[in-house]
Amino acid sequence: MTLLRKISAALFVGVLSFGLVACGKQEKHMPPPSQASGKVIHQAEVPLNYEYAARVVAYRETEVRARVGGILLHRNFVEGSEVKQGDILFEIDPDKYEAAVASARAQVAQAQANYDQSVRDADRAEELVKQKVQSTSLRDQAFAKRDADEATLMQAKAELRTAELNLEYTKVAAPISGLTSREAVSEGSLIGTDPTSSLLTTITQLDPIYVNFSFADGEYDQIRHLMDEMQKRGEKIDNLKVTVRLGEGVDYPEQGTVDFTSPTIDKQTGTLGARAVIANPDRRLVPGMFVRVTVTGIKLANAMTIPESALIQNSSGQFVYLLKKPEPPKADPNAPKGAEAQAPAATNGGDAGKGQPQKPAGRLMVVEQRPVKAVRKMQNGDWLIDSAEFDSKDKNKIVQGLRDGDEVVTEGQVYIEQGLMRVPEGKSLMVNVTDDAPQQAPNGGNAKASGPAQ
User: Fold this and answer.
1) pTM over 0.85
2) Low complexity bias located where (predicted)?
3) I need a surface site. Which of 8, 95, 237, 328 has the fewest CB within 10 A?
4) What is the third-level CATH fold of 47-59+207-297?
């Protein structure tokens, strides 16, 4: 049994090897086409977005404090509920303040009576002086008493106003509209007017709401410069717009506006503080929440972007493979008239020199390795590249960057060698070049190039 098993295993391996060899030959004679893709690059106006970490803060947060002391009688709201500006939130025992008002009114009445009498005495003294039956000295004393009584009356009225205000302050009203916090003191407690005992509650206004963030060093100047350039092009832009992304990656539906930027750079962080105001009708944004803000509305003219798949990085730097049409073969002046120029044949291993037709090594396409400088990744994944740099001696020769209309390889770089696009022997290379520019095709549609590389 052992010998039979060994023979069977040997036969199986032999058949399998034969099949693999046959398959290999079949693959050699029927190779699948190699695929590559390219894209036409155009200059265009592209939006630039700036994303920052941010923190939500209340639009307003006001402490409600007692302005007079006494026993806290009533709390007229539910903790955590929304209140309107002017709503009576707390009531303090008013008894002593009502008594103070009554006393102040009596003082005003007394002062008024004294003043009225002083006015009559002064008028009488003036008449007696005119009749020359009283000295001017007595008249002057009557005038002085009248003026003093008038001042006393004014003081009594001011004290009455103070007493009335203190009585009004026993009803503590909401200074702003918003949501209340928990009460700081309970009903029946004795409260004062000093900072340690006057706090009653806090009101927070959440709609609209603020989002605080900081511009990176130098970026704000860049943004202002781009805004100035946009205005020169006739594009009106008053304030920077922002969008908010919540912690779970969900975009907040409302758009905000930058309403404040700090006049100075933070010495510790080297950043410029900024603030955006945004509507918060559903109160999804809560003070203290960390979010991401994206400053939008900035556009860069004559910009050039390339797909991320086209950008290659190696030890020399960043570059792309630029597709270029091959130059036509030069005519041989010694060739017989009417003869067609023949492309140089590639050698094929052991078949060389045996008089047999040589197989082409593969389709060739001129490719240039063009250095580029990627400066910013866009939201769609493309890379914004720096403007082209030209040769100092030849102003038409680009040494870094691209021209409008250049074609770059986006897929199939594995087949590319320096200077040539070479495909393994017997295979063909199809390069599908797409052009996203809205060019007018003969049939009225958008032009799109697709076909074999030439």
Assistant:
1) no
2) 335-346
3) 328
4) Elongation Factor Tu (Ef-tu); domain 3 (2.40.30)
